[in-house]
Amino acid sequence: MRSILIIGLGRFGRHLATSLADLGNELMVIDKNEAVVNKIAPYVTSAQIGDCTDEIVLKDLGVANFDLCFVCISNDLESSLVITMTLKELGAHKVVTKVNQDLHAKFLLQNGADDVIYPERDMAIRTAMKYSAQNAFDYIELSKHYGIFEIAAPKSWIGRSLTEINVRKKYHVNVIAYKCRDQIMPLDKEEYYFSEDQHLIVAGDKKNFHELIAKKL
């Protein structure tokens, strides 16, 4: 369990707050909008009303006591920048700031943000990867070029073993797990045989993944 502060309760901030609360984290949220704060209050440890561009407000929150601080105000660069810088000046351990463009991210990383997140961009990339490949069901980006993909087992692999197909050498991707009836099982043996009712969890370069899918095996 971690102690987390979320500043800004727009759609992303609210979803982030409820998700982190569901995972058992100790959560404080703050926003200028009283109605929004009151709505989310039952789901978090503490909900405050206030303008975090005011240094006094941030001081009163005791930001140095949190393991992690999220700044979720990407539609106002000035406010986002002021809050991020002030958090670090007040001793915040780690500050993660929501952004919607690269220039915004550059300014923030140079002025106090330990990390930046692009929720809309990341979701767009995930959606594009998922729906551009016929047999892909999900995708998680690890870096610009690498990711983890959930795919249907190619028909030509059914009944054959991982060793026989030699997936890593032939296709330059790694099958790291398989999914059956919503359960993900690690693939820890070379003599695993592919089954028609299972999805595969594959890690590798996006280019190699798309080449694998394009082969229509």
Main sheet: strand order = 3-2-1-4-5-6
| Main sheet: strands, sense, barrel | 6 strands, parallel
Separate helix tally = 9
Q: Helix/strand-derived class?
A: alpha/beta
Helix content: 25-40%
Low-confidence residue ranges = none
The CATH homologous superfamily of the largest domain is termed NAD(P)-binding Rossmann-like Domain
> Tell me, what's the shape?
elongated
Order of helices and strands: EHEHEHEHEHEHEEHHEEEH
Do you know the CATH topology of the largest domain?
Rossmann fold
**How big is the Rg?**
22 Å
Give a brief description.
With 217 residues, the chain is α/β, with parallel strands linked by helices. The protein has helices spanning 11-22, 34-40, 55-61, 77-89, 102-110, 119-132, 162-165, 167-171, 206-214; strands spanning 3-7, 26-31, 46-49, 68-71, 95-98, 115-117, 136-141, 146-152, 173-180, 183-186, 199-205.
Which structural traits does this protein have?
217 residues; 6-stranded parallel β-sheet; single chain; 5-stranded antiparallel β-sheet; Alpha-Beta Plaits; alpha/beta; 9 helices; 11 strands; Rossmann fold; 2 domains
Q: Strands, helices and their partners?
A:
Blueprint: E1 3-7, H1 11-22, E2 26-31, H2 34-40, E3 46-49, H3 55-61, E4 68-71, H4 77-89, E5 95-98, H5 102-110, E6 115-117, H6 119-132, E7 136-141, E8 146-152, H7 162-165, H8 167-171, E9 173-180, E10 183-186, E11 199-205, H9 206-214
Parallel strand pairs: 1-2, 1-4, 2-3, 4-5, 5-6
Antiparallel strand pairs: 7-8, 8-11, 9-10, 9-11
GO biological process, one term: potassium ion transport
GO molecular function, one term: monoatomic cation transmembrane transporter activity
Protein name: TrkA family potassium uptake protein
